[in-house]
TrEMBL record:
InterPro entries associated with the record: Neur_chan_lig-bd_sf, Neur_channel, Neuro-gated_channel_TM_sf, Neuro_actylchol_rec
The keyword Transmembrane belongs to this UniProt entry's keyword annotation: yes
Membrane topology listed for this record: Multi-pass membrane protein
Protein name: Neurotransmitter-gated ion-channel ligand binding domain-containing protein
Entry GO MF terms: extracellular ligand-gated monoatomic ion channel activity; transmembrane signaling receptor activity
Record's subcellular location: Membrane
One GO term describing the cellular component: membrane
Species whose genome carries this gene: Paragemmobacter aquarius
């Protein structure tokens, strides 16, 4: 299998359009192209499978050969636990719809398979490709056990391995969050007597963080777990809330003398340094533990 183009990759629906060349070489009476099925096509009615040689070609080594051009929309559930540092596989599953694994077995032609050197997927980096020879056991003879119907079929999976660039994580997601945290932390360097400003900044930052998180969540499917960037935002929420609580506590404390103001400033500086170190360590731990 040789991939030409990949386009309209949608993470929210775990689908993508793929255009590729697919060829078969075989010996014997069974023509695998007649009963071949691509099992992860989303819209079979919209798929285009075009034989580039109508009749099988006889190769010098005695194999029959047939080349197909395949284009369609495919589905492979994406695992987003490491988003936006996730790696995904764009897969194509081939399976025979009639002959069991005891009659026909798929084997990948690794020498000729791969993808075009001009292939590019916006927002992703192509790292490699791989193939896996599998067996699909349906666990059922579909009501035709006595007729010799098979329940185990040979399956071949082609994977195009892709990954998001690190720059997307740094500049598009982390930078706005860091700027937001820095704006909230400015409270801890202001005069402790500026009560209104010190409470307004982190409160506004908390709301802004919610909107920032919602902006990237809109492009993701509903999942029942926290993705990597969600965990970082959880830490950021804790930092902002801690800053807000410090501002509220200071506002309720009587700062009657210079010594009291100086002590409050020292405590603010210590809290600032501690939060910066804690946030940095937490982000590093979350990223490295993925």
């Amino acid at each position: 299998m040789y991939v030409n183009t990949v386009y309209q990759l949608e993470v929210a629906s775990s689908t993508y359009y793929l255009d590729a060349y697919l060829w078969f070489k075989w010996k014997g009476d069974i023509d695998p192209t007649a009963t071949m099925e691509i099992t992860n096509l989303v819209e079979e009615w919209g798929a285009i499978v075009t034989p580039l040689n109508e009749e099988p070609m006889l190769l010098p080594d005695g194999h029959q050969y047939k080349l197909l051009k395949v284009e369609g929309r495919f589905m492979q559930p994406f695992v987003l636990a490491d988003y936006p540092l996730d790696r995904q596989k764009l897969s194509v599953y081939l399976e025979d719809s009639t002959h069991g694994a005891d009659q026909l077995v798929y084997v990948m032609d690794t020498e000729g398979s791969g993808y075009g050197h001009m292939l590019a997927i916006p927002g992703w980096q192509i790292s490699n490709w791989s193939s896996h020879q599998l067996q699909h056991d349906y666990g059922s003879f579909f009501g035709a056990e006595k007729a010799g119907s098979a329940s185990v079929y040979s399956t071949l999976r082609f994977d195009l391995e892709i990954a998001r660039p690190v720059n997307f994580f740094i500049w598009k997601l982390m930078l706005p969050l860091v700027i937001l945290l820095m704006a909230s932390w400015m409270v801890l360097v202001l005069d402790p007597k500026l009560v209104e400003v010190r409470t307004a900044l982190p409160a506004t930052g908390l709301l802004t963080a919610v909107f920032l998180q919602q902006s990237y969540s809109d492009g993701l499917p509903e999942v029942g777990y926290l993705v990597l960037i969600d965990k970082i935002y959880a830490v950021a929420y804790a930092m902002i809330v801690l800053t807000l609580l410090r501002a509220i506590w200071t506002s309720r404390t009587e700062l009657s003398g210079d010594l009291a103001v100086a002590a409050a400033r020292v405590m603010d500086r210590k809290l600032l340094v501690g939060q910066v170190l804690l946030f940095t360590a937490a982000v590093a731990l979350i990223v490295l533990a993925r």
